[in-house]
Design goal:
Elements (H helix, E strand, L loop, with lengths): L2 H4 L24 H5 L10 H12 L4 H7 L4 H10 L9 H11 L5 H8 L3 H12 L6 H4 L1 H4 L9 H4 L7 H4 L1
Helix pairs in contact: 3-4, 4-5, 5-8, 6-7, 6-8
Amino acid sequence: MDLSEIAAGVEVVDEQRDRGVATVDRTDGRLVDRLDEYAPQLPCDPATAATLVEAYAEGKSVGAAARAAGLAPTDGAKTLHLFGESVSPVGPAGREVVRDWLEGRLARTAAVELAGVTDAEFALAVYVETHDPLAGAREAVEGTLTSDGDGAVDKRDALAGTMSDVGDLL
């Protein structure tokens, strides 16, 4: 194959063709319909869960999204946890304290004090430690709650390929 065969059909034009914006929607149906199968395991009905997820995806805090859905903030946090969101009010050290309490090595009052949280926050941390996210639920909310199905993508992650760090300057 020579250069003339490779270049056959190639043409030069003055303008680019506007092809629009490419979109991909990997979800089928309405969010509330996709959540129906998880209704028995959720602390609220699918319509309320859909409202919660949509409010949370708009950038509202867990508490504000729960209030928008007509839920108590703790129930909103539990629902989001079941969908795979990280809502634990404690960090890694607090999680160890919660596990120690669950295994009976600490009294509750001592555990709450060591974790540095309120009773309500401790109860939520216990729920997070004792309930795994629902299998398949992450995919059900994927088009609404996440950009890539791998968790909420922040601006820094989305633009990581275009940013430099100190090591690039050397």
